[in-house]
């Protein structure tokens, strides 16, 4: 191998290794990560809430249920995940006079992620020009977004809203993904804000 071949082979090998390191770990962590946000009424005493029920006019989910008169797979998964989390938090599900109502919405959307760091040779000239500019990498993926609302049943007002978004594998949110997103959202309930009444 002569000096020029070795010189050209090195930046290609470095760029390929860097790209694998960049994409490998990020692909694993992106799939497991749930982006969570929430907002709430700071005047509400969340510790006073002891019982809950599903909001009577629950909107239809992305698969068409429960508005069609039967539960879709996603609706069953959502209800099971939320029920388990509310029970873990010490709230009791009831059918009469609950303290709060719970409602959710869920959807899957096509998204793009642009990696502006790009790739390419860090320096030097080659065939056709300068290599140092790099090209942004665009990744297509599906994002599942879930919004969970907690409504004060007596006042009929929104008390808390949490939302979570995560990368999903298909056009629906499977059971494991539902659990991961719901657990991520409800991990922030009740709010631990210094301004909230205790």
Explain how this protein is built:
- By secondary structure, this protein is an alpha/beta fold.
- It is built from three helices and eight strands, in the order αββαββββββα.
- The chain has helices at 3-32, 73-88, 175-186, and strands at residues 34-40, 51-54, 92-93, 100-119, 125-126, 129-130, 135-152, 157-168.
- The chain has a six-stranded mixed beta sheet with strand order 1-8-7-4-2-3, with helices on one face.
- The chain is globular.
- The termini are far apart.
Structural features:
198 residues, alpha/beta, 6-stranded mixed sheet, two-stranded antiparallel ribbon, 3 helices, disordered C terminus
How would the global form be characterised? globular
How helical, in percent, are the residues?
25-40%
Order of helices and strands: HEEHEEEEEEH
Helix/strand-derived category reads: alpha/beta
Distance between the termini: 73 Å
User: Helical element count?
Assistant: 3
- Low-confidence segments: 12-31, 119-132, 194-198
How would you characterize the largest beta sheet?
6 strands, mixed
Structure summary, number of beta strands: 8
Strand order of the largest sheet: 1-8-7-4-2-3
What is the percentage of strand-forming residues?
A: 25-35%
The residue-averaged pLDDT reads 75
Rg is 24 Å
């Amino acid at each position: 191998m002569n000096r020029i071949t070795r010189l050209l082979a090195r930046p290609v090998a470095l760029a390929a290794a860097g790209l694998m390191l960049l994409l490998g770990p990020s692909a694993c962590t992106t799939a497991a990560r749930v982006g969570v946000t929430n907002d709430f009424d700071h005047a509400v005493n969340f510790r006073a809430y002891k019982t809950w029920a599903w909001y009577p006019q629950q909107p239809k989910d992305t698969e068409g249920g429960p508005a069609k008169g039967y539960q879709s797979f996603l609706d069953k998964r959502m209800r099971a995940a939320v029920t388990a989390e509310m029970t873990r938090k010490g709230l009791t599900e009831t059918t009469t006079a609950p303290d709060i109502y719970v409602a959710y919405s869920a959807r899957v959307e096509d998204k793009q992620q642009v990696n502006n760091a790009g790739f390419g040779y860090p320096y030097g000239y080659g065939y056709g020009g300068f290599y140092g500019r790099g090209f942004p990498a665009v990744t297509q993926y599906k994002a599942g977004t879930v919004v969970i609302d907690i409504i004060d049943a007596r006042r009929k007002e929104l008390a808390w809203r949490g939302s979570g978004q995560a990368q999903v594998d298909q056009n629906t949110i499977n059971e494991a993904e539902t659990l991961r997103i719901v657990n991520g959202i409800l991990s922030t309930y009740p709010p631990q804000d210094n301004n909230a009444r205790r």
